[in-house]
Structure formats: C-alpha cells, structure tokens
Here is the input.
Amino acid sequence: MSRTLPLIAALVAIPTALVAQSPMPGLRLFSPLQSTDAFLVDTNGQIVQTWSGARPAGATAYLEANGTLIRAENIPTGPNVAGRGGGIKRIAPDNTVLWDYEYADENGWAHIDFEPMPNGNVLLLVWDRMPAAAAIQAGRDPALLASIEWLPDAVVEVRQTGLTTGEVVWEWHMMDHVIQDFDPSKDNYGDVAANPGKLDINFPATVSNDGEWNHCNAIDYDPTTNLIVISSPFQNEFWIIDHSTTTEQAAGSTGGFYGQGGDILYRWGNPQAYRAGGPEDQKLFFHHSTKFIPPGRPGAGNILVFNNRAGTPEGLNYSTAVEIDLPYTFFLIPGQSYAPADFTWEYREANPTDLYSAIMSSVERMPNGNTLISSAQQGGHAFEVTPSGQKVWEYTPGALNFQCVWIGDNILWSDADEVSVSAGGTVGFDVVAGSEFAGQTYFVIGSMSGTYPGMFVNGLRFPLNFDGYFRASMFAANQLPFGNTLGTLDANGRAHATFTLPGGILPPEAAGLEFHHATAIFSTTTSRVIRVSDTEPLRWTN
Here is the structure.
C-alpha cells in the first residue's frame, strides 16, 4: 500500500506538453532483407525484442497491437523480379507462428509492401501474372515487351481464416483501368489526356524485360476516409483509389463513395504520365514509402514520400523526404495537372549527397512533429529530425533495410485476448518499454468501462476510465488475480505480469464481460508518470 499511494497521486499530475527537441518515445522496428530476423530498437540503440522467421524478409514488416509481428517473406520461386515476396507471416513475441499465408502461384504473387488494416485484414500489393499477349490485347506496344510474362499490379484484401489460409474479400486490378492511343482496334483506345483516372499502358515508353510495368512499392490505408494510396516508381507517381467500392465496382468506373468505382481519384508526382506536363514538372523520382500521415500527427491526412531521386535529370545523387498537401476534393481543371504544384515540406541534408539511397528507404511523421527517415543503401541508417531539421536520434543496423517503423505506445503485449470463466486461465502481459526506462516503476492497471475518454497523466493520455476494476487492480497489485503487476523494469525496460482467473468461481453470467489493461511507467525519483501504453483487451468467455 505504501508504494501504491504515491503512484495513485501521480495519476492526477498537471499536464505538460511533448517536446519535439528530443527523440519521440517508442521503439523502432527493423527487418533487414538478407535476414530471417526482425527486431525492435529503443532510443538508446539497444535491441529489446527479436522475432525469428524461416525465410528472409520479403521487404516490409509491421507490429500489431498485441506485439505480434506481421512480416512479408521471400518465397524463392515465382517471378525473378526485385521485391518478390509471396509470403505473409504473423509471429507472436515468443516466435509462435500465428499465420503463415502464401499469395504465390501462377495467377498472382504478393510483393514488397502490404498494409495491416484496423479490422485485422491485410491489403497486399500483388502482381497479376499474365501472358504478354494480355498486354498487347490491352493496347501495349509490342515493341515495349521483351518478356513472355506481363506483371501489372493489383491490390487484394485478405482475411485470415486459419493458420495457413485466407479469404480474398476485396480486390482491385490495374488492368481494369488502362487506356491507350496506340492501337485503335482495342476497346480501351481513347484520349489519354482526357482520362486521368486511367493509366496509359504505354507509359513509360520503356522496354519491359521482365514483364513488370509499375513495380508498385508502397501501399497505405486511411481508415478515416476509406482511401488507399499506391506508389509506382516506374511511373514516378502515387495514386489514390476508393476502398468503399465493392469488388465489382472496383473493376469499373462507377460506384463507391466518390462515384468513380476503381478509377484513380488523384495522382501526383509526374504529370507526364497523363499528358499534363513535361519533364520540368516531374517531382518524384523512383520514390518509396508513400504513406498517409495518421490522425493526431502534424500534417494529418497529407502524404509523406521518400524521394530517392534516382535518375534525376541533374544527375545529382541525393535523396529527400517530402510532404504533399493532399486536396481531398480531388478536383482537376481539364488540361492541367493535379495540385499542389510542389512539396509542402522537404527535408534535405545541408550537404545534399550525405543522404542518398537509389532504392528502398522510408519516412514517417511522429506525433511530436519529428520525422523518422531511413536510408536503405547507407547501411539502413535511420534518423529522426525535428521540424527545423535538427537530428535528435540516429541508428544504423548495418544491413540493407527496406524501412524503419515507429512503434509508439504499443509497449504492453498480452498473450491472449480471452479467458474462460468456467475453465479459468492465466493471461500474460509483457511490458516492453526500452532500456531508457530501466529501473523505473511500472504498473499494469485495468478498467471495465472502456478506453475513452481516459485520463490525462502528466500530459499523457492514459487510455483507461476509473471504475471498480481500475481501483481493484491498483490496490490489489501483485495479489491474486494480479501477478507482478507492480514492479521495477529490468535492464532492457521489460517486465512480465499476469492476470489469473480461477475456474468455476464466477457465475456463467460473468461471461461476456470485457476489460482493458494498460501500463503506466513512473519515475522512481519523482513518482511522476513518464510513459503510458496503449490498451490490451481481455474478454471473459464461457
């Protein structure tokens, strides 16, 4: 009790603001391409968690709310094209494989990037595997084909149905939205400039030796608008499409919230692709990591891009991180290019060539306004800059790494999301805060009245509401049913806590109750809250 009371008092501390002149709290995720491992690094540069896989990375990896890694893996068959993946794997923190799914056959092959969705589904970037004759039938100039295979891009949304299975619940195919003015005998012959919602199948006018046309390398989903952004470095553009459509509507030009079906709603980076500009108007050059800025972060709703600038007309070997102000009306004056005319923000090194990667790399906006950048070909070097361009954090994994992902407040992981009232059971909670919090006090607390509005704790939103369970989890810390829920973090800023529900002691009516748990980390010297986590849900079942 003597230890608990000062911590309770800290929960009503006066709010203070986040300061962008220091690194954003949270871990960073790396998944090197030649490695079967992915790992989390803290702001001290210490590796605090590693997941091991059976195959090398396909390219990208992300972390789900319960500490589950979801990672693209490289299946060593299929198209001999850069970025080949084919596998998606979910791996628990203890390396238990939770999903081992392959989208890899003679019809289609997943590659490079994917996007975990709020509903648990996954958006995959895939190649549609077609014969070259399919491209010619769609008006492709045969002189631009040097492969027997044609690999246009598509997007499929997959719902996990089993350990190795998944169901495609939505799809969009680029070949449903092509136009050309090369072959008047084809159905899609038309005016390219008058149809910016379609892709010119003959742009760029370069020979495809391996069948690839777009090489899409990034996909992101905005749940607030139900929009998808896709990045194509071969066209040097990114495209916005509508996810509110059905699969049938996505194959056409009507339907969905915007009424345009699966046609491109907005495109930016290279107006030459739709005959609305010249070389001087091109802004993106073999870019990567095209992502929406999430809600709650400066620039929310805008687009961030790592502009590799490979093949720039000037021949200057330097890269930049850029932000584009996305106009959500998507209005286009006929004959003109999509606004804006230029970047809203750009990060460039004082000596520009100090930052250069011709391939891969990433950029991400953080809640305090800082921006996390990684340069793949510079040993995967990752660094964080303030809005004024000051570097406040750097780390080099020393390997070719496609991207670096900020993990944020996802520092409390549970090994189960339900426990049986009749059979009972124990749920484990792992606190993974990082070595900068070594020796500090942690407290795992629960609530049964939801996560909103929560409470502010020293300027941080603690996402639990005060109720009877909240009170019990505080005053009965380290007593059954709460195990090791209050203690000291180890040298890596880690701890393990448990919740144990004995079987048969509660009536069946208790089944269906839902709880949420979160952790607060307190300074051992001031007792002030210095870190909070997201919540982990726990449901009582029969």
In short: Residues 5-19 have pLDDT under 50 and may be disordered. The chain has four helices and 40 strands. The radius of gyration is 25 Å.
